[in-house]
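Saturday, quiet lab. Running sequence design on the structure tokens for the scaffold JK sent over.
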């Protein structure tokens, strides 16, 4: 990066060249905002390779690739970033002003980080230094944070440790991680444009590493409900682990995924945690370690996602039945 170079002067009548690196759906809106901006040119999009998907395990392109190809942008999907001469040549041929990375999914080696004229910039979906790592949106919901947001930052070799450029926060309220991801994606789109166009006037701020927290990759087992936990903890698990792995339990030996529920306080019951203690036409209520959980939307193994009302009209539940393994 060369802060002494005046970017405003450098781009008089010339579009800034940006190579974009991103893979999942949350990275589409920021890319779209750059593609549509009259002062920005995206000659290349780099994303992860196609992955097997669904029961047939057919190779499916990542969402960013689909968008980029529709927009007529060249897409490159390297199997590895280290010692990749083809990638280095592609980047050096373009001579990008900026590298913009949004949920790409891999650590970038130094030679790639240093390939942009001005800077490599990352759009990260948390208020850094909180929630560095792979799944910041999900863990912010699961852990009961009141706010999260988007950070644009200068990239360094460490995991999400670079200096902060711009930040904006949002309230989480009762959003699930899918809804929150959509909101943050739009915010990221706004913030990356602002960051690039005002880059020379933004004073980078070092992160306070002592305040950092980590948002690890989610495992299937993270979704398994422990009914001895509080109802509010389980309700956050339900909102936080969407679309995968979903919060799940078992009833009569079959898996049940939970998609929407609400906390009900102070219902007296002598039943054990995990027991169904109330059933009506609209919902059923399960006792937890503290308080109870009213289930409103679910999916039984082998069936489609549905409301508890629809489920109860075709399935017989009884008080005292227990959920769990």
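Result came back. Writing it out in full:
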């Amino acid at each position: 990066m060369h802060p002494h170079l005046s970017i405003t002067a450098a781009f008089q009548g010339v579009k800034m060249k940006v190579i974009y690196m991103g893979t999942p759906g949350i990275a589409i809106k920021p890319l779209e905002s750059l593609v549509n901006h009259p002062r920005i040119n995206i000659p290349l999009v780099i994303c992860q390779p196609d992955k097997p998907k669904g029961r047939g395990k057919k190779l499916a392109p990542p969402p960013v690739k689909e968008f980029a190809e529709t927009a007529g942008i060249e897409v490159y999907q390297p199997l590895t970033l280290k010692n990749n001469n083809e990638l280095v040549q592609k980047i050096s041929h373009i001579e990008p002003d900026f590298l913009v990375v949004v949920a790409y999914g891999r650590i970038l080696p130094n030679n790639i980080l240093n390939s942009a004229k001005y800077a490599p910039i990352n759009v990260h979906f948390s208020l850094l230094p909180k929630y560095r790592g792979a799944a910041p949106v999900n863990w912010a919901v699961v852990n009961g944070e009141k706010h999260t947001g988007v950070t644009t930052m200068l990239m360094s070799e460490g995991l999400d440790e670079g200096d902060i450029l711009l930040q904006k926060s949002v309230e989480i309220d009762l959003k699930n991680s899918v809804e929150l991801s959509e909101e943050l994606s739009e915010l990221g789109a706004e913030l990356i444009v602002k960051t690039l166009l005002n880059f020379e006037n933004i004073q980078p701020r070092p992160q306070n590493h002592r305040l950092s927290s980590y948002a690890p990759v989610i495992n299937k087992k993270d979704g398994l409900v422990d009914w001895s936990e509080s109802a509010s903890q389980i309700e956050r698990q339900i909102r936080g682990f969407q679309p995968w792995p979903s919060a799940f339990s078992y009833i009569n030996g079959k898996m049940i995924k939970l998609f929407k529920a609400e906390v009900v306080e102070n219902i007296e019951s002598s039943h054990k945690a995990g027991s169904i203690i109330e059933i009506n036409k609209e919902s059923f209520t399960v006792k937890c370690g503290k308080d109870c959980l009213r289930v409103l939307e679910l999916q039984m193994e082998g069936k489609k996602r549905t409301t508890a009302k629809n489920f109860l009209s075709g399935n017989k539940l009884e008080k005292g039945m227990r959920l769990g393994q």
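Notes for JK: The two ends are 55 Å apart (CA to CA). The longest strand covers residues 254-264. Ask whether to fix the surface positions before the next round.
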